[in-house]
């Protein structure tokens, strides 16, 4: 799951885990679209080309809402890896790629009082910190 699937779909581990979580949540809630509040530690965010984070301490946490559509795929197709699952994963990956920069969302949402967002944050959260038990070179995945 952490090696072959991301490679097959040209996606990151976080994307694959988030998509799998969304599919399971959609099955549990009996819906085709789920809202998830995604949190990241911000260490992989590109603040600007000239910013070097290697000598900083702490995280640059990002938090942003994501709505993913699972296309109503039956759970048996998810468990068995049916061909339709590949199309759903590709579509969800493209939904994630189309999202604006997470850091920008946080800046607008929490620091700009002129921006009024009509909805509250999703009640379900997702936070993938990486492979914490891995060696130093592998931990950043």
TrEMBL record:
Domain Condensation: 8-131
InterPro entries: Condensation_dom (IPR001242)
Any single Pfam family the record assigns to this protein: Condensation
Coiled-coil segments on the chain, per record: none
Listed GO MF terms: catalytic activity
Domain of life: Bacteria
Protein name: Condensation domain-containing protein
Lineage, uppermost ranks: Bacteria, Bacillati, Actinomycetota, Actinomycetes, Mycobacteriales
């Amino acid at each position: 799951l952490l090696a072959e699937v991301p490679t097959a779909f040209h996606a990151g581990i976080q994307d694959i885990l988030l998509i799998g979580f969304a599919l399971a949540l959609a099955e549990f809630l009996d819906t085709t679209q789920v809202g998830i509040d995604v949190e990241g530690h911000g260490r992989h965010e590109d603040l600007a080309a000239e910013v070097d984070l290697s000598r900083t301490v702490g995280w640059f946490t990002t938090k942003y809402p994501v709505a993913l559509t699972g296309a109503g795929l039956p759970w048996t197709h998810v468990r068995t890896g049916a061909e339709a699952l590949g199309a759903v994963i590709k579509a969800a990956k493209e939904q994630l790629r189309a999202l604006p920069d997470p850091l920008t969302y946080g800046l607008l949402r929490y620091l700009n009082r002129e921006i009024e967002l009509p909805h509250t944050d999703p009640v379900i959260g997702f936070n993938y910190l990486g492979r914490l038990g891995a060696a130093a070179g592998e931990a950043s995945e």
